[in-house]
Amino acid sequence: MATIRKRGDTWQAQVRRNSKTISRTFKQKSAAQKWAQQVEQEAAQFGFTGDHACLSRLRVADVLERFRDTVVPQRHGRKIETFVINAFLRHRISQTRLSNITPGHFAAYRDERLKVVQPGTVIRELGLIQHVFEVARIDWNIPFAVNPVRAIRKPKAGRPRNRRLSAEDWQRLDQGLMECRNPLIEKVVSFAIATGMRRGEILNAKWGEVSCVNRTLHVPVTKTGEPRTIPLSSEAMALLESLRSSGASPDDRVFPTSPEAVKLAWQRLTKRAGIQDLHFHDLRHEAVSRFFERGLSVPEVALISGHKDPRMLFRYTHLKAEDVARKLNGAV
Predict the structure, then answer these.
(1) Domain spanning 167-326, CATH class
(2) Catalytic-residue membership of 218
(3) What's the whole-model pTM score?
(4) Would you list the domain boundaries of the chain?
(5) Alpha-carbon gap, residue 330 to 332, rounded angstroms
């Protein structure tokens, strides 16, 4: 139970729970009320926080579970973040008391994970756990002396994929697409090449987001969290026209199939075609590279692809020194 009382020129907030009391003094009554409300909410879930004794009572799992259940549902990447947190909860570190957790625990976790997954995966996992500790420290008033994940060295990310399809790859892929049992797969692949959109963006596209007049497609939900509207080429427009039915409503999906169906079909397709190391996401790289080959500028390509940092697009240009030399010397 919270008590707010004035003491001279200040306001004292006092919260009592199970015969224990925490108090703090503020200059404004509203600040005292806000703090008391926060402490009561935390006490209902964790017991008292804000005092160092709570570090001995709480485990890493307590913080992770609270973040998963209260914060993740409002985040764009909630599905994958729930998966990562649930996996981490099965790790022995999750049972460590917050008072005992050190950067060394997460350094050991880093080294352990690097033996089975790529550095990029470890970087993303540690980034999420580091954010959980920051939320606990800042928003939940759990008094960490230092964020234990922030204090460790992160793995160096590997070189990004630069996989492009050769003429032989395309021939094999075209032949494999002709043999697909799901007729939508060929359309999905063609649309990915024509637009540079991610698989999820393609499968979530609805007819109400397509403007035939402006030749554009609005993408309301993206990986970056910022919606974008992309221009459509003649190839993309023709593909959409071949898919549109007279009874389609604005809420109908353009490609009515599931991500799992596309994933499995793609695996069967590349195996049947005998193409090694080709991911569906490589089609996005191929598409963006083609945009540059058509002569589009970096801002124009960024408008289509949704890249926030223009430097991320440099790896798609595939510039050759000899080609630049010809331009410098007036050759076309």
Answers:
(1) mainly alpha
(2) no
(3) 0.64
(4) 2-48, 57-138, 167-326
(5) 7
